[in-house]
Write a structure and sequence with these properties.
By secondary structure, the chain is mostly helical. The protein has 3 domains: about 160 residues, no CATH class; about 40 residues; about 100 residues, Orthogonal Bundle (DNA Binding (I), subunit A), CATH 1.10.30. A two-stranded antiparallel sheet has the order 1-2. It is globular, with a radius of gyration of 25 Å. The structure holds zinc ion (ZN). Zinc ion (ZN) binds next to strand 4 and helix 15.
């Protein structure tokens, strides 16, 4: 099956062309096959069981896809799940992973900026109208159809070899005028980056003041994601909620004990690397009489919190909270 260098060199032009044509088709077929498997892995939440905080982490770490390759595959897999017809279009090459990713990103931005939901039927039409388009052509037609999505064009961030981050920003005329006005009123030429950094520094000082943080960095405080879950005392009414509420001192203890990382370990004992969307998880759930004390609490990422709840309370009940299980 696999040709050596000599064998390839001895092929006729015709053979060379038809062989590479065959291989490109195989490549697409295998890609779609990978997507089908990813869909099932997501449905079973298997990546969480293996100790990954997300399907994305699983794709980059376990399957060794680059971040952008993982992103494109996950987007295409979800598009395939939403619209059955996409599968064959990907396989035939009429749709590419990057065009599908682009279309889904535009739809998301449109929904966010227009504060509306695009109906399933319309989504399908949009996706299928991308068939045969290059990435550039797709971008163009999406921009015409969803102008509202434009101001939220993604901010491109790239790490450079120097260890810095290069950010590409796109401003429309009105947005750019703000900076021109600042330049005009201050009477001196200003570098856009400096202006943005000055504004950011002011914002940071204000936020620190509002949150009672001194300018000196505190050693390790609970992340905002966890802090958010704290209910105001007046919001606590039922006895169940009272049991669920976790005293701040206990939270701090549990958080520091976990080192601000998800504590889940897979069957091989490897620990999850999740540091985002962390939640306090009751080892014995509140609904089964579990208490909010040091021994019964741990820090889990959202995926692993859901996984443990799922195991304890039965998947039927939890299916309502995890879309992929429905
Ligand atoms: Zn986790």
């Amino acid at each position: 099956m696999e040709e050596s260098k000599q064998e390839i060199q001895s092929l006729t032009n015709q053979e060379l062309i038809s062989k590479v044509d065959f291989l490109a088709k195989e490549e697409r077929r295998i890609t779609v096959e990978v997507l089908r498997f990813l869909r099932e892995i997501e449905r079973r939440q298997l990546f969480a069981e293996l100790g990954y905080p997300s399907l994305f982490a699983y794709c980059t770490k376990a399957l060794r896809y680059s971040e952008s390759a993982a992103c494109r595959r996950i987007e295409a897999m979800r598009a395939m799940r939403d619209t059955y017809e996409i599968e064959s279009k990907l396989e035939s090459g009429e749709l590419s992973l990057s065009v599908v990713t682009q279309a889904r990103a535009t739809l998301r931005q449109f929904e966010k900026s227009a504060r509306t939901k695009v109906e399933a039927e319309k989504r399908k039409d949009v996706m299928l109208s991308m068939c045969g388009k290059s990435k550039r052509e797709a971008e163009k037609s999406l921009a015409i159809e969803f102008p509202a999505a434009l101001p939220l064009a993604p901010i491109v961030q790239r790490e450079t070899f120097r260890g810095t981050t290069r950010v590409t920003l796109e401003f429309n005329e009105d947005e750019m005028k703000v900076f021109e006005e600042i330049r005009r009123l201050s009477g001196r030429p200003q570098n856009l980056k400096e202006t943005l950094l000055r504004i950011a520094a002011k914002e940071l000082t204000q936020l620190k003041k509002a949150r009672g943080e001194t300018p000196v960095r505190r050693k390790q405080s609970p992340s905002p994601a966890v802090e958010k879950k704290e209910a105001a005392p007046s919001a606590i009414h039922s006895s169940k909620e009272r049991r669920r509420a976790i005293p701040v001192a206990i939270k701090r203890f549990v958080w520091e004990n976990a080192g601000g990382r998800c504590e889940y370990r897979n069957p091989r004992g490897e620990r999850c690397e999740g540091r985002h969307a962390l939640e306090y998880d009751h080892v014995a759930p509140v609904s089964l009489g579990g208490l909010s004390n040091r021994d019964n609490l741990r820090v889990y990422c959202r995926q692993h919190n859901a996984l443990s709840a799922n195991r304890l309370l039965g998947s039927k009940l939890m299916a309502a909270y995890i879309p992929a299980l429905r």
